[in-house]
Write a structure and sequence with these properties.
alpha+beta, 4-stranded antiparallel sheet, 8 helices, 43% helix
């Protein structure tokens, strides 16, 4: 934790100097930082639970290495530093930091379930930082601060995956997420918030099967049918004709579109495409191809996104 504290301590005075006088943040910078803080609050609550709710003996009984819980507690400390740093940058520029929400995580009866969930949520955080980095327009220092947090988040995720017995680096590239998608992926854990962000909440898309093994091993092979469910009554537009699942994995400019085989009203299946691994993200759409992730975010999504852990 000392290395992260030293890095943030070095960066923070820079972010508070002349280039960022009060209310100097652009609207784009403010939006990126507020979403980052929103997600850091979520991760802080999650990792604090993983530290406080289980004992060293419980982690050891499930095959985790000695000291694993201690490192989970260190990660919780990192998330606190990240949240405090972003909040200070916002407040120093006249923006009231958004407070933490009330969260409810799926019942974690054991450390392994917690670590699996932490991998899911941390993958969303990594995607949000990647997606937001291109929208930091006013300050190279802010870009450096965001990048330095991102690399630490990636180390967290590798640590989690090693604990599960999975590859710490399942893909060549991580998958960036748009702000709207990252925000929507966080909603499944939100009970209530003193203040929500001004981002649209999309109709839900659920992955009903297969549920990946907690160890993420063996990887879900190409051709495995993925079953999804949705509620057509929640769509913002009426639809007719074929539906598609667009799967984004690594290359946000080239989602993979697959026509849905309807199982029943509000449900259908598509096969896992070849070459897809790690954490992928899917949305339901009427488009058969030709859209980027940004296009799908702006006008192409009927429902979703949903996270699909494949390896």
């Amino acid at each position: 934790m000392l290395s992260v504290l030293a890095l943030i301590t070095a960066l923070l005075p820079l972010t508070l100097t002349a280039p960022l006088q009060k209310r100097a943040l652009s609207e784009s910078d403010q939006n990126v930082l507020e979403l980052a803080l929103y997600l850091e609050h979520l991760e802080l609550s999650l990792y604090t639970g993983g530290c406080d709710n289980f004992t060293d003996a419980q982690y050891s009984a499930q095959g985790f290495a000695p000291g694993y819980r201690e490192n989970v507690c260190v990660i919780a400390g990192h998330e606190q530093v990240h949240a405090d740093t972003i909040a200070t940058i916002l407040s120093s520029n006249g923006v009231a930091p958004i407070p933490a929400c009330t969260y409810q995580f799926p019942t974690s009866v054991d450390p392994k379930s917690f670590v699996f969930l932490a991998n899911m949520i941390t993958s969303v955080g990594i995607g949000a930082y990647l997606g937001g980095s291109e929208n930091l327009t006013d300050s190279a220092v802010l870009e450096e601060a965001a990048a330095s947090i991102l690399t630490v988040e990636a180390r967290h995720d590798a640590f989690l995956r090693i604990g599960l017995g999975a590859s710490p680096f399942p893909t060549n590239f991580d998958t960036g997420l748009s702000a709207v998608w990252a925000y929507n992926l966080a909603q499944m854990f939100i009970v209530s918030c003193p203040k929500q962000l001004p981002l649209i909440i999309l109709p839900k898309l659920n992955l009903t099967s297969p549920m990946p093994p907690v160890s993420l091993q063996p990887p879900t092979p190409a051709g495995t049918m993925l079953d999804f469910a949705w509620d057509p009554s929640t769509f913002f537009v009426q639809t007719s004709g074929p539906l598609y699942i667009a799967i984004i994995n690594q290359n946000i400019s080239a989602p993979i579109f697959q026509e849905v085989t309807s199982v029943a009203p509000g449900s259908g299946s598509v096969p896992v495409p070849s070459g897809v691994a790690g954490a992928a993200f899917g949305v339901l759409t009427t488009f058969s191809g030709g859209l980027t992730e940004n296009d799908l975010t702006s006008f192409g999504t009927l429902a979703g996104p949903v996270e699909i852990l494949l390896s």
